[in-house]
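Quick one, probably user error.
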């Protein structure tokens, strides 16, 4: 379901300064525009390039990247990619985008996860973030991801996860997994062990949070031969990660059941993020890169946000930002709001589809 998709692209407008970052971003935009206008066949590489989309995660902050992907879809840009890479909430974004359901999937943030304590409850110390509610009630049931459509996509869709034993990053994609396994990989990518007890077993190994080793999965995209990248961060360029004393203490409690190799990788997660982001906005990764990032910290919600209003505001800001980045008139794209009856399920798991 490509809810709210536009049939034609609007006439290009001048791009305001500061909207787009990245070394060689003009070249990336030129490739995108040429492909969009020529009716490019996704994944074909017929112009000799390999254009990749990279989406950061961040819990509820993931709506920033998800709504940006809505704009890409409605402006006809989503059909120009050869591969997509996502981490954590970004894994959900690339999956719903590849399935043709991105506006539909984005509405889960502000219509189904916000406004009650089912998904996030900071006082529920045993499991502050209920991944089971997200997937069993919504991703596989209420607003179900069409995993078969993801597998059928000509675009490579890769999501990061961390091996719960040795702490190594693994990229799972739609060309190697069955539909149920792919959903499990996305579920693993979103399962932050600091806030969730969930682990996903995929082909005999347990996996969790994709953020730990691939907070912004640019390096895997470069390793896969991408020649041009469009990157959707969910935080401002100045944002750096730091582990608070409370998180350190709480982490000791939460990490007790993991092997030492995993705990070591988990302890380095902030350094991995800061290194990746520093390079992204610094020397780059050696290929043309177009970055469409939020610049105003006020437009970025908290990763644990539960109020629908700031989530919708952040999503609207993302739409306008992508419109400006590609010279489309403001208001060319829009969010999707599900009709009454698709906004909440009772918090029971009876009959809920597994992943």
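Nope, works fine. Designed sequence:
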């Amino acid at each position: 379901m490509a809810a709210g998709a536009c049939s034609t692209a609007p006439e290009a407008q001048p791009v305001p300064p500061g909207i787009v970052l990245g070394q060689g971003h003009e070249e990336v935009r030129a490739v995108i525009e040429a492909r969009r206008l020529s009716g490019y066949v996704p994944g074909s590489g017929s112009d000799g390039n390999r254009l990749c989309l990279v989406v950061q995660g961040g819990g509820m902050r993931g709506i920033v990247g998800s709504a940006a992907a809505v704009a890409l879809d409605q402006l006809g840009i989503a059909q120009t990619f050869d591969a997509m890479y996502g981490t954590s909430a970004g894994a959900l974004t690339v999956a719903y985008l590849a399935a043709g359901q991105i506006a539909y999937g984005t509405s889960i943030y502000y219509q189904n996860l916000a406004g009650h304590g089912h998904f996030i409850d900071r006082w529920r110390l045993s499991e502050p973030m209920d991944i089971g509610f997200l997937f069993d009630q919504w991703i596989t049931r209420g607003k179900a991801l069409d995993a078969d459509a993801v597998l059928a996509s000509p675009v490579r869709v890769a999501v990061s996860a961390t091996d719960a034993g040795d702490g190594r990053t693994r990229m799972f994609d739609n060309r190697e997994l069955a539909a149920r396994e792919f959903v499990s990989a996305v579920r693993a990518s979103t399962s932050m062990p600091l806030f969730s007890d969930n682990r996903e077993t995929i082909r005999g190994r347990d996996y969790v949070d994709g953020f730990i080793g691939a907070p912004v999965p640019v390096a895997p995209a470069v390793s896969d031969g991408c020649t041009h990248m469009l990157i959707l961060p969910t935080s401002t360029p100045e944002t750096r990660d730091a582990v608070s004393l409370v998180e350190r203490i709480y982490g000791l409690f939460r990490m007790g059941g993991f092997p030492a190799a995993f705990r070591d990788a988990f302890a380095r997660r902030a350094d991995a993020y800061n290194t990746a982001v520093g390079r992204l906005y610094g020397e780059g990764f050696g290929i043309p890169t177009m970055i469409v990032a939020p610049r105003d910290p006020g437009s970025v919600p908290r990763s644990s946000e539960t109020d629908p209003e700031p989530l919708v505001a952040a999503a609207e800001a993302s739409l306008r930002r992508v419109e400006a980045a590609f010279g489309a008139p403001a208001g060319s794209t829009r969010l999707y709001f599900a009709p009454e009856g698709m906004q909440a399920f009772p918090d029971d798991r009876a009959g809920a589809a597994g992943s």
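The first strand starts at residue 51 and ends at 55.
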